Amino acid sequence: MRFGIVTAWPDEDWHSRRLLEACAHRGEASSVDPSALGAFVTDAAVEIHLGGRAAATFDALLLARGLGRVGDPGVQFELYRALEGTGNLVANRIDALLAAQDKLRTSWLLRLAGVPTPPAAVAQSPREAAGALAALGEVVVKPITGSLGDGLVRASPGPAGRRAVLDFLGRDGAVYMQRYVPHPGRDARLFVVGPRVVGAMERVAAPGEWRTNVGLGASVRQLDPPAPFVRAAIEAARALGLDWAGVDLLSGPDGPTVLEVNGTPSWEGILEATGRDMAEPIADHVWRRARQRARRSTSTKRSEANHG
Questions:
Q1: Entry pTM
Q2: What is the pLDDT at residue 299?
Q3: In which order are the strands placed within the sheet that holds 244-252?
């Protein structure tokens, strides 16, 4: 099995290194620089090249860190779509990653799939923003794209809350608000790979901090998640079309509620809490998908030969 790990930081990024090592346990694993991708569109075919190597020479491509140090992000996104469109196995898919990156899209895809998630709103004008804040009540104001807890602010209806919301709006041109779910300073991160939860941890916020991100000082411990949490996490990853995902949940008044879905989740916290390296189940899942595709292709060719 030939794996390509797409990353601009094969040496510096811990997660990229772990995926390279895990895939090497199952076949040949090579790093692919996103800025080295190119395409030829001719009458005969659409050919995608990865640093001088044809995409068809890989059985699977894993997007570890899909943006290059140089090059054009929009071009790189289109090349990932072209890889998928020309029959290459790409995990996670670029449109699934972009859906997870966009909090508005995440919210409506989860709602569309019936996955429990807090009410949310996006506004582009001061009037709409103030109206959404009044309708939602206490909210967490978040950058529309991003993760790791950066830039999160809690706001309540009233002058101070409106000022916070309008500050976001003035800076970014739009503001995303998600209804705040009360919690005792802890939440759950479930790591989903394919149809299973393969690791889970509880994150406990640092003293005086309401955010539970590990990068902000939260401590972690292993979690045996209840069945409703497992179902919600798997359904959330499926709703966005992700092969693997980190799903953040809280226990709300009516059961588990999904706060965020991360398509490029860190698993250092999971490793610390559980002792399990998520690179192994990721590599195993992609290996199984690639093997199934190869078997289907072989079966199709044999059928065509028998009926030729």
A1: 0.92
A2: 61
A3: 219-222, 196-204, 186-193, 244-252, 255-262
